Amino acid sequence: MSLRPTAANSMKNEELRIKKNYTMKRIILSGGGTGGHIYPAVAVAEALKRRFGDEVEILFVGAEGKMEMEKVPALGYRIAGLPIAGLQRRLDWHNLAVPFKAVKSIRMAKKIIRDFGADAVVGFGGYASAPVLWAAQRMGVPTVIQEQNSYAGVTNKILSKGAKRICTAYEGMERFFPAAKIVLTGNPLRGRFSKEGADRGEALAYYGFRAELPVVLVVGGSLGTRSLNEMMKAWILSLGGADAPVQVIWQTGKYYEREMQAFLAAHPTGNIWQGAFIDRMDYAYAAADLVVSRSGAGTVSELCLVARPVLFVPSPNVAEDHQTKNARALEAKGAAVVVPDAEARTRAMARAMELLANGEALRRMSENLEKLARPDAAERIVDEIEKVMK
């Protein structure tokens, strides 16, 4: 019996190949600049892979020289870079090149979309997102915007006019976008966050803490936050050399690591764990009775999922002051307490001590946070991507 392929078999194989290519979904995910834009996009990429398996091809598009160009390939995804850049807030000659880079980026984005054969483009914010969405809309490719914050930026408001869907994390976004296009999905997160989380006994042992004293988690992001570090320094000095009355997980951030290590060495204080990074966020959340934190979109979403009471100190150095608006949105629902950045050094830890003394307030805050949690956000966004491709 001959095993050589017949003409009929060759035709059948070609039909299968064409059918496979026809069913293949090609999706561009664009965003970056910070982890707050990159990791939601990666969470959606992972959800797309879970949903479609080998029948989806994903391409990230980022900004040249930004962190996504390293982080995304390290996670096993392809990425293309655009020469896009944002305006500097101070007077800078580099601003003169921004319009030229924008035009070039749009031209490059069109070529990337055409060559890849994109069925849909999803924007997560950051420099690269705007030219890719703009180009896709003019090429007739369906676009989806993922708006992470409670206050939409100017770029997303403009691009929303041509988008098929706008996936939001907060209610009331009709102020910024056409109501018919809005779907409340929540912010997609990587990893497993939940109220149950890690075992608290294990978490306390990990930090060398005791069960009888409450725990405050002070977290300022991977690079760190000057205001929260200065808050901790002022509070430690106010103790006058005594041990801290509560246990504190103090994440300094890489940028401030040496300075804060030197401070704590000069002012040794019991009941404080200090580190530049937190490798086990599940343990940190499990141990914490109260979190003191910035209010970026990803952090807010994590805290809703783990339902940990929180005192927000919003960063004032962000576009449209969106961190303050995120924090105030939760405060209005009884899910957070807010202390302005300018008052953090003198007021934040004192307010934290008041909250820790009020178990009922902490319980209510936890319940209200849990009501806002959306653990299936990535899957909901994939639902909307699938709909716009039909």
Structure report:
The structure is a single chain. The protein is of the alpha/beta class. It has helices at residues 7-23, 35-52, 68-74, 98-116, 129-138, 154-159, 200-207, 226-238, 257-266, 281-287, 297-306, 322-332, 344-356, 359-372, 377-389; strands spanning 25-30, 56-63, 78-82, 120-123, 143-147, 165-168, 182-184, 215-219, 247-251, 272-275, 290-293, 310-312, 337-338. It folds into 2 domains: 7-189 and 376-389, Glycogen Phosphorylase B (Rossmann fold, 3-Layer(aba) Sandwich); 200-372, Glycogen Phosphorylase B (Rossmann fold). The chain is 45% helix and 15% strand. It is elongated, with a radius of gyration of 24 Å.
Order of helices and strands: HEHEHEHEHEHEEHEHEHEHEHEHEHHH
What is the gyration radius calculated from CA atoms? 24 Å
How is the largest sheet built, in terms of strand order? 3-2-1-4-5-6-7
The oligomeric status of these chains comes to single chain
Q: What structural class is derived from the secondary structure elements?
A: alpha/beta
Strand content: 5-15%
Tag the structure with descriptive keywords:
alpha/beta, 7-stranded parallel β-sheet, single chain, Rossmann fold, disordered N terminus, 45% helix, 15% strand, 390 residues
Strand and helix map with partners:
Layout: H1 7-23, E1 25-30, H2 35-52, E2 56-63, H3 68-74, E3 78-82, H4 98-116, E4 120-123, H5 129-138, E5 143-147, H6 154-159, E6 165-168, E7 182-184, H7 200-207, E8 215-219, H8 226-238, E9 247-251, H9 257-266, E10 272-275, H10 281-287, E11 290-293, H11 297-306, E12 310-312, H12 322-332, E13 337-338, H13 344-356, H14 359-372, H15 377-389
Parallel strand pairs: 1-2, 1-4, 2-3, 4-5, 5-6, 6-7, 8-9, 8-11, 9-10, 11-12, 12-13
Helix pairs in contact: 2-15, 4-5, 7-10, 8-13, 11-14
